[in-house]
Amino acid sequence: MNDELVFEVTQDADGGYVAECLTEAIVTQGDSWEELRKNVLEAVEAYFFDRSGPASVRLRLVRDERVAVG
After folding, report:
1. Residue 28: CB atoms within 10 Å
2. How far apart are CA 30 and CA 11, in angstroms?
3. 3-state secondary structure the chain
4. Does residue 29 fall inside a structural domain?
5. Integer Cα distance of 53 and 2 in angstroms
6. I need a surface site. Which of 16, 19, 41, 51 has the fewest CB within 10 A?
7. In a domain, 16, yes or no
8. Residue range 32-60, pLDDT digits in tens
9. Is 5 within a domain?
10. Is 69 inside a domain boundary?
């Protein structure tokens, strides 16, 4: 088990957030950043309920934007 789990976070069109772990099958969402953080921690605890989990979790916010040139 790695010491850290990394989640890729994207913002939905409705303003909420979706977090997907890059190395484990863990996905969750939240209407606010604070709710997302809480839900990620709960999802990680549930996923590793019967074994040792990570020491930390990293939330990496991804912003996908297309900009016209010229």
Report:
1. 20
2. 10
3. CCCEEEEEEEECCCCCEEEEECCCCCEEEECCHHHHHHHHHHHHHHHCCCCCCCCEEEEEECCCCCCCCC
4. yes
5. 8
6. 51
7. yes
8. 999 999 999 999 999 999 999 999 999 99
9. no
10. no
